[in-house]
Amino acid sequence: MFGLGFAVQRFRPLGERALAQLSGLAVDILLPSYLFFTTATSPILESSSAAPVMIGLGIVVPLCNYGLATLALRPSRVAKGQRSAFRFSIVVANTAFLGIPICEALFGPVGAVYAVLYDFGTTLVTMSLGIWELNGGHLRDWRPLVVTPLIWSVLLGLAWAWTGWQFPTWLARPFSTLGGASLPLALLVGGAHVGNIQLSGFSGWRQLAGLTVTRMFVAPLVVGSALTVLGWRDLSMGVAVVESAMPVGLTAAILAKSCGADAEFAASAILWSTLAAMVSLPLVAILLA
Predict the structure, then answer these.
(1) Which residues contact 170 (CB under 8 A, 6 or more apart)?
(2) How far apart are CA 21 and CA 72, in angstroms?
C-alpha cells in the first residue's frame, strides 16, 4: 500500500488539500479508533506494564541516534548549514504512518499499541531536542503532545480494559471495520506524502548517503545489538528495533522549513531513506523472525 500511494502521487497526484484531508482522516479518526478498540480488547496487564518501557525506549533510542548523527557529520562532510537538518533527520523517524502498520503486521494488534507508546516517546524528543536543534535553542509549544488523538486513544483503551467491561458486539463490529481500513489507509497516505516530495537540482549526495546509512542500517544495528547484549528479547525489543529502522519522518521537511533549516536536504532525506527502507526493513523482519 505504501508503494501504491507513492506511485499514485507521482503519476496521478492528489492535491495538497486532498492529501491533508486524508492525513487528518487517518491520524485523527481511523488510527485512534483502531488503537482504542485494540487496546480495550487486548490483555490489559501486558499493555499497561509495557507503557513506561516503550515510552522510555522511544526517548532513549532517538537520543542515541543524535549521538550517531553527530559522529557521522565528519565522514559525511556535512556543511555547517546542513548540520541541524542532518541530525534532526536521523533523530526523527517515520514511527507513526509507517511504523505502526508495520509493527501491527509483524507482531499483531498489541504490537501496534507498543508502537504508539514508542512513538509518544519519540515525539517528546522531537518536540524538545529536535526543535532545539533546528531552532538554535528555542523549544516549540508542547501542547500538541497533550492533544494528540493517538496517545489519548491508547489511554482511553487502557482505562476501558482496566474496568473489565466486555466490549459490546454491536459496537465491536464498526470498530473492527474501521481497524481494517485504518492501517492500509495510513500506509497509502504515507506513501503519497513521500511521492509528493519534489526535488530540484539537489547535489549533496555524499551527505545524503551518510544520513541514509546511519538512519537505515547503523541505528537499528546498534539498537538491536545493545538490547540483545542486555538480554532483552521480548516484544518490546522487537518493536523498538523495527521502529528504529524506520526512514526519516514525514514531518522533517515541514519542521525544518518552519525553523529556517535546510528543508530541501530534509525532503531528500525523507525520499531516499524511504526508498532504502524497501531493502532494509525486510532484512530487519527476517532477522527478528
Answers:
(1) none
(2) 37
pLDDT value at position 62?
93
Q: Is 281 helix (H, G, I), strand (E, B) or coil?
A: helix
Residue 71 C-alpha cell reads as 559522529
Domain ranges of the chain: 2-288
Verdict on whether the full-model pTM lies above 0.90: no
CB 145 within 8 A of CB 266: no
Give the alpha-carbon dihedral of 265, 271, 276, 280, to 10 degrees: 100
Classified as helix, coil or strand, 248 is strand
Cell numbers linked to 67: 549521538
Q: 2-288 domain in CATH 1.20.1530?
A: yes
First to last CA, the chain: 22
CA-based max dimension of the chain:
59
The three cell numbers locating residue 237: 525489543
DSSP 26-84: IIIIIHHHHHHHHHHTS-HHHHHHHHHHHHHHHHHHHHHHHHHHHHHTTTTT--GGGHH
**Alpha carbons within 13 A on the beta-carbon side of 258:** 11
Per DSSP, 196 falls in state T
Most confident option among 13-27, 35-49, 224-238:
224-238
Q: Where are the alpha helices (DSSP H) in 148-251?
A: 149-163, 169-195, 205-213, 219-229, 235-244
Three-class DSSP category at 93: strand
Band (pLDDT 50/70/90 cuts) for residue 241 is very high
In DSSP terms, 248 is beta-bridged to 93
Cell of 195: 511521492
Residue with cell 542515541: 64
Confidence bin at 7 (pLDDT 50/70/90)? confident
